Structures are given as C-alpha cells and as structure tokens.
Predict the structure.
Amino acid sequence: TGTDGAVHDEEERLIHSKTGSLKNERRWTAGAELVEGKIVRYDMGRIVSLLVFIMKQGTIFDCRKLWLEQLVLMIIAAVSGLLMYLAFTYHIQKDDRDPEETLDLANRKLYEFATSIMGLVTFVLGLFVSLVVERWWRLYKEGLDKLQRGVTFLVST
C-alpha cells in the first residue's frame, strides 16, 4: 500500500474461508480505493485525470437495477414518441387543410397545454423545495443544539 496520494495498483484480499472468517476485499480502481465494492478513499492524482470517466465500481452506475430501469424507461419513451409521430402524421394526411396550418394549430394547442401545466409544475416544485429546506433546517438545528450542549458540558466541568 502506498501513502500520500501515491498510485495504488495492488490488490489486498483476505478470502472468506469455509469456517466463516471475515471477508475484506480491498483494491484500487480509477483513483478510488474500494472495500467490498464501496469507495472508502480517493487518490487525487488519479481522480483529476480522465480515468474518472471510466470509474464505475462503487458508484451508483454499478447497480444493475438502475440500468434495467433506465432501459425500460428509454423503451417506453421511444415507443411513445413513435406512436405520437405516427398519430400526428396520420392526422396531417387525413386533414383537408394545408399541412402548415395544421402544424400551426397543433403548436398553439401545445403552447396552451404547456402554459396551463406550468402552474402545477411550480406548485409541486415549491412543495419539494419546502420539504427539503424543512429537513435541512431540522438537521441544522439538531446539530447546533447538540454542539451547544457539548460546549456547555465542557465549560461547566
């Protein structure tokens, strides 16, 4: 094991035996030291290089479930987009009006919908921010209270 940000390429492993001894797997990858698949320390020399873009282990990108969910969402988005495209082109072909006039009408309807939904989005975002600020303030106050009690205890003894 190196020290002071040196590049660590070695792997230390204590293999789990059949007797149930403790398993501790430690290795370095792309500037991060991993212990049992979780990042515990960074090597700044490697983290500021381009190797950080290939680091996957120990991060959220290592989760298979996340990738599967993203794949499902991308498929749903692609199918929805394709259906909308087909429906819109069918509507334009079926309509007796000029295609430009039909597009203008569709754009106006889309603009009206986006304008009407903006209020709902603002309301939901306001609720979210309110909850986050409330949690942060509670943690901040609890931390300050504990710090104040600790200082009072130290001063009084």
Summary: The mean pLDDT is 77. The CA atoms of residues 30 and 52 lie 6 Å apart. The first helix runs from residue 44 to 47.
